[in-house]
Write a structure and sequence with these properties.
Layout (H helix, E strand, L loop, with lengths): L1 H6 L6 H4 L6 E3 L2 E3 L5 E4 L2 H4 L8 H12 L12 H15 L7 E3 L5 H16 L3 E5 L8 H5 L4 H5 L8 E4 L11 H7 L3 H4 E6 L2 E2 L5 E2 L2 H13 L3 E5 L23 E4 L12 E4 L19 H14 L4 H23 L6 E5 L2 E5 L3 H13 L2 E2 L1 E3 L5 E4 L7 H25 L1
Parallel strand pairs: 3-15, 5-6, 5-7, 7-10, 10-11
Antiparallel strand pairs: 1-2, 2-3, 4-12, 8-9, 11-12, 13-14, 14-17, 16-17
Helix pairs in contact: 4-12, 5-12, 13-15, 14-15
Length: about 425
């Protein structure tokens, strides 16, 4: 691993948490050169929704490349692009009664957010965007401006203006105070172009918004001409069960940002979905060299056909999510003095620990036992579980067993320090 330390920037992070070289992967498993297996409950931070090297998607990708399919085309028309749009329309949008036009903003979730922020200001003529405490929307300047973590936002190195923060759903307060909070925020109701929200704050600590709260938010926005942007980058594409995480609430956002799991294979791809009447872009007003990465279109379309032609995967995600939630509840109940709490929805789950240090120790112990889990939350205090949606029940049980042992060792170490 000398070359990494010698040549790679100090900005690297995940390789510090999991100091191993990985050579191959399949399903929910990664392997090192000596074939040591690691159970992956990180899944590319939610990118690998169908696991590593899904066989069906791999065959589609290999066939496309072997037939000399177009790899790079910016926004020129290709058969892969047409197939993606037609499949998105027939398998995802039409069955849900959704009517969105598709912006190809570039290859990352931050690109999707940047496009959304530019568009809502252009459409409304307003400047302010409201975001929520503990939100995470990306690391580029526009996306940083609507991040709810001050330390992350501060990494911009310059003041980030025309953004206002209000509290996320705390599951206790009356949802009816959203209008008052928006009115009192910088920009106010008349000057706010949009509200950007995650239905589940993943990086923020696996905080789940109530459906009643989301409905009230949508209603207030609609009443005052404020556009509602749902950042579904990490929670979309089935992570919570339904393809879009907002479906349970029965709301229709004006703009939806998707990335991570949308390509299905870990290939870089992002989409910004917009209501047709919001499509006021001039040609090339928002563009990027890698907004036409056709191999990602191929796997994305194949993933939609394979996994979203019926409700089987959505049902499975809910059942397996319940299995993990029950296991986490058992772990929390086994250590009442630690006041552990379970969080999340679908196959996005978290175990809240007493501190970031404890959560880090749980993650480190899990790695020593062959399980990859990261941490999240304002202070990194939540152990985060994001397995592939196709994870087996056996792998879930093994992960919970390792996690239980890891929590036990971390809490014992904390007791010794105390």
């Amino acid at each position: 691993m000398n070359v990494f330390e010698r040549r790679e920037s100090e900005v690297r992070s995940y390789s510090r948490r999991w100091p191993a070289v990985f050579t191959r992967a399949g399903g929910s498993w990664l392997h090192t050169p000596d074939d040591t297996p690691y159970l992956d409950f990180f899944a590319g931070a939610g990118t690998l929704n169908y696991g590593h090297n899904d066989p069906t998607l791999k065959r589609a990708l290999i066939a496309y490349l072997e037939n000399d399919g177009v790899t790079h085309a910016l926004d020129m028309w290709t058969d892969a692009r047409a197939d993606l749009l037609e499949t998105l329309e027939s398998r995802i949008l039409a069955p849900r009664g959704l009517d969105y036009k598709v912006v190809f903003p570039g290859p990352s979730g931050a690109n999707a957010v940047e496009a959304a922020l530019k568009l809502v200001r252009k459409v409304t003529g307003r400047q302010w965007v409201v975001h929520f405490a503990n939100a995470f929307h990306g690391m580029t300047l526009g996306a940083l401006s609507v991040n709810g973590n001050p330390a992350v936002r501060g990494s911009a190195g310059i003041p980030l203006a025309y953004r206002a923060e209000i509290p996320f759903d705390d599951r206790c307060s009356d949802v009816g105070n959203l209008k008052e909070r928006l009115a009192a925020s910088d920009g106010g109701l008349a000057g706010t172009a949009a509200v950007i929200v995650e239905t589940v704050q993943a990086e923020g600590g696996m905080n789940v918004a109530r459906v009643e709260w989301l409905r009230e938010l949508a209603a207030v926005c609609r009443q005052h001409g404020i556009l509602l942007v749902v950042d579904d980058i990490q929670m979309g594409c089935g992570r919570t069960g339904s393809f879009f995480s907002f479906e349970e609430a029965g709301i229709v956002p004006d703009v939806v940002c998707v990335s991570k799991g949308i390509s299905g294979y870990g290939l870089p791809m992002a989409l910004t979905l917009i209501r047709p009447e919001l499509d006021v872009w001039r040609p090339a007003e928002h563009n990027g060299t890698f907004r036409g990465f056709n191999p990602a279109f191929v796997t994305a379309a194949e993933a939609m056909r394979t996994y979203w032609s019926d409700d089987a995967l959505a049902t499975s995600v809910r059942i397996k999510g319940g299995r993990i939630a029950a296991g986490l509840e058992q772990i929390a109940a086994a250590y009442p003095e630690a006041r552990l709490a379970t969080l999340g929805r679908g196959l996005a789950r978290g175990l809240q620990t007493p501190s970031g240090e404890t959560a880090d120790q749980v993650s480190a112990a899990a790695f020593q036992h062959g399980l990859l889990v990261e941490t999240c939350g304002p202070d990194g205090e939540v152990v985060k579980l994001m397995p592939p949606l196709t994870v087996t029940n056996g792998d879930i049980d093994l992960a919970l067993e390792i996690l239980d042992a890891s929590v036990k060792s971390a809490l014992a170490a904390a007791a010794v320090r105390a």
